[in-house]
Design goal:
By secondary structure, the chain is α+β, with helices and mostly antiparallel strands. The protein has a domain of 79 residues. Helix content is 46%, strand content 15%. The protein contains eight helices and four strands; from the N terminus they run E-E-E-E-H-H-H-H-H-H-H-H. 11% of the residues are buried.
Length: 178
């Protein structure tokens, strides 16, 4: 789930979100970029529940010229910085051609090429379909997790777990499934 807000949030924060037909669900913040935050649902959400949430979502706010410029700057230089390269890497890893992706998503091959080159971005519904096709979460598709320096985050997590359990940090093993 992608949210935009002014709140000072940090990776690993837990956020409760109320979804129609589901109620309150817990999400974990997995990445940040400016005012954009990528969250992962703690438990799976059905496609029907997600569709209901998208239908009930508030309309985009009317932006002033300054707000539009700020939003564009975030979109251009924020979370989507590596989207195209990440999409290409994931597509190739799955053994798919741009034509395969285009046919599956019912778009043109030049559209997929535009996404990968950074000339264009897919609509939100296509992002969901892309993520499903590539067997990754939308947040993993947007942010190239493999390119992020997570050594410090893992070290801190290992130390926190060690303190909480009374074990030594070198006895803590952290596995990341992407």
């Amino acid at each position: 789930m992608l949210i935009e807000c002014d709140a000072p949030l940090a990776v690993a924060d837990m956020i409760d979100v109320e979804l129609p037909h589901v109620g309150i669900v817990t999400t974990k913040l997995v990445w940040t970029s400016g005012q954009l935050y990528g969250c992962e649902f703690e438990s799976p959400i059905s496609p029907a529940a997600l569709a209901a949430a998208q239908l009930r979502g508030a309309a985009a706010p009317v932006m002033t010229d300054e707000a539009e410029l700020q939003h564009e700057a975030i979109s251009t230089h924020g979370a989507f910085d590596r989207f195209g390269a990440n999409l290409k890497r994931l597509r190739i890893a799955k053994g798919l051609s741009q034509a395969d992706v285009a046919a599956t998503l019912d778009v043109s091959a030049p559209s997929v090429s535009g996404w990968e080159s950074g000339r264009a971005r897919p609509k939100p519904d296509r992002m969901t379909a892309l993520a499903a096709l590539l067997d990754v979460s939308v947040s993993q598709l947007i942010v190239d997790i493999a390119a992020e320096p997570y050594d410090e985050l893992i070290r801190e997590g290992r130390e926190r777990i060690a303190r909480a359990t009374g074990a030594s940090p070198e006895k803590i093993r952290i596995y990341i499934e992407v």
